[in-house]
Amino acid sequence: MAIVSGVDVGSLCTKTVILNGDGEILSFDIIRSGHYYQGAADESIENALKTAGLKRQDISYILGTGYGRSSISQADSEVTEITCHARGAKKLFPEVRTVSDIGGQDSKVIGIGEGGIVNNFVMNDKCAAGTGRFLEVMASALSVDIDEMGKLYFASQNKLEVSSMCTVFAESEVISLFAQGHMKADIAAGIAHAIARRIIGMVGQVGLKDEVVMSGGVAKNAGVVCAIEERLKVKLSVAQEPQIVGALGAAIIASERV
Amino acid sequence: MEKAMKKIVEVTSNPYAYVEGLKEENNKKIIGCFPMYVPEELIHAAGMIPVVIWRGNESVTWGHAHVPPYDCGITRSFVDDAVRGKLSFMDGFVFHIRQCLQAGEFPFIMERHFKPAYQKVLYLPALYAGDAIRDFAITELESFKKSLEDFTGKEITGDSLKKSIETYNENRTLLERVYELRRGKPEILKAREVMQIVWSSMLMPKEENNELLKELIAGMKKKTVETKKNSIKVIPVGCLCQTLQFDILDLIEDLGMIIPDDDLYIGSRYFANKVGLDGNPIEALADRYLTKSPLCPTKGVWDIHWGDEAIKKMKDNDAKGIISILIKYCPPHACYYPDFKSKMDKEGIHEIMIQVEHEVITLEATKTRLQSFVEIIGGV
């Protein structure tokens, strides 16, 4: 079987996965997408090739996905990130029935039927509420980095309510909470729950079915994961590297198209 | 066929200029009709030109002083056009105000800020069960006829009304024929062209439109098209009383879907059901209005299910899925949609809802959703 690659060009990060003929991950790469998606895709493919000790001609098929999927000049074809996240999650967690993917610019909840085929999905497509970008803006307002923000959740003694879904209004709300003298950790917990509330609403539309996988960059934020688990009352399965689930799914589909 | 389409595109590309020119050319009064249920035949029989009012393509400006931003696109766009003087060539308007809550705002706004020479508020009944509904509709249409006669000073005779009905029925037959031909070879016209064809009928005098459609049909019969393999047939369904952005229709087709038929007002619903020519023509117009199928949420019909009708249309066309197109802030559709969606889920029908609005369409996100829909149907 041939060596294939999946490239997921997201609004914030570009991810590449290279699979060998047995469907095993040979290498992966994650870089910032920046403002030139084609260049980001080329660079990420090059990085993944270098890590795997391969050359471009070793790759038989490249499948593009993500927000910038149409910008990948090296891709042989493209599939949406919805289908790719479903396929990637199925590979990593064979019993998965629901995927919650929170990416940089949008968030999605995907229902998966028998055989790993998507049977339903919901995505927020109008604003940054409940996305990685929301989290970035909030982290900036708290003057912490994203990782630290995730850890702060667990130091909270009194989870506050951040009621705004709108990123701009939520930022103002966070500043107001600071002005009222609230602790950073309590505000961070409130932010995590604001994202969780947004995701719960989307899960409600798709229908919750266990096992639930969380993918995308926000899955690296332990606070948000915990907040969603608390509200959904289920344990989320999170891959060791949740950001590459979409690229993995793309690579799996690529292997079927060679 | 190309010549006919060129004229249709010209008419629909700038309806303001076209309708204004129509008035000068024919020396007749122009009456704007709120979409969906105004019986245009009565206005035609009164010697005036009925046109269905439309959603403009410009951002709403002054209109926001009169209607809130949470009204639907056609409401805001129409009011904006009216108060900015863009519809000054219109001599009057007819609003069926029971159709939706927002339509009820029009008569007051127009009376106060536009002062049309003629304005009629129609109050046609919701289709609840019971004989009284028919009498209600007939009485309302009689009142409409009388108001037109008072405005023009000319009697609308039974014969003149029947003649108008014949002209309108011929238009319905011709549009039906366009759809039949398209069903046989869906690639013959782009979905946006089909919408423009129906829209042209709403703007042009029916006699002229009938001739244009005959020319178009003759061309469609002759034209051979290459069938696209692996295309997935889908049926757009919606309650929208306006044209949606053509970009959405193009997107559906660019993603490998084909639209062989639709359940849209600026589509198959406009020409569905002819008006009977036997007996009293007013009663016949009422009976057409009272026909429950094709079902529209604005008529308040609950004893037949819109979902069943959509599924039948999908199956009749060998289509694989349904694309619900919901205009943002359309209460009748929004209220019906959960029931419609439940029916789709229960019957295992592939269905996706795309929400569109007047000013903003998030085309990239819509593309991802539609492309995912194709992938689901195609089993990727």
Features:
heterodimer, A: 258 residues, alpha/beta, Nucleotidyltransferase, domain 5, 2 domains, five-stranded mixed beta sheet, 41% helix, 21% strand, B: 380 residues, Rossmann fold, four-stranded parallel beta sheet, 15 helices, 8 strands, 51% helix
What does this structure look like?
The complex is a heterodimer of chains A (258) and B (380). Chain A is an alpha/beta fold. The longest helix of chain A is centred in the C-terminal third of the chain and has 23 residues, at 184-206. In chain A, the strands form 2 sheets. Chain A has a 5-stranded mixed sheet with strand order 3-2-1-4-5. Chain A has a 5-stranded mixed sheet with strand order 8-7-6-9-10, sandwiched between helices. Chain A has helices at 37-52, 81-92, 132-142, 146-152, 167-179, 184-206, 222-232, 245-257; strands at 3-9, 13-19, 25-32, 59-65, 77-78, 98-102, 107-112, 118-123, 212-215, 236-238. Chain B is of the alpha/beta class and 380 residues long. Chain B has a domain at 19-157: Rossmann fold, CATH 3.40.50. Chain B has helices at residues 2-13, 15-26, 40-45, 73-83, 106-113, 132-152, 158-184, 191-203, 206-222, 246-254, 265-269, 281-290, 306-316, 331-347, 363-378; strands spanning 30-33, 49-52, 92-96, 118-122, 232-238, 257-258, 321-327, 351-356. In chain B, the strands form 2 sheets. Chain B has a 4-stranded parallel sheet with strand order 2-1-3-4, sandwiched between helices. Chain B has a 4-stranded parallel sheet with strand order 6-5-7-8, with helices on both faces. In chain B, β3, α5 and β4 (118-122) form a beta-alpha-beta unit. In chain B, α7 packs parallel to α9 (206-222), α10 (246-254) packs parallel to α15 and α13 packs across α14. Chains A and B meet through α2 and β8 of A and α15 of B.
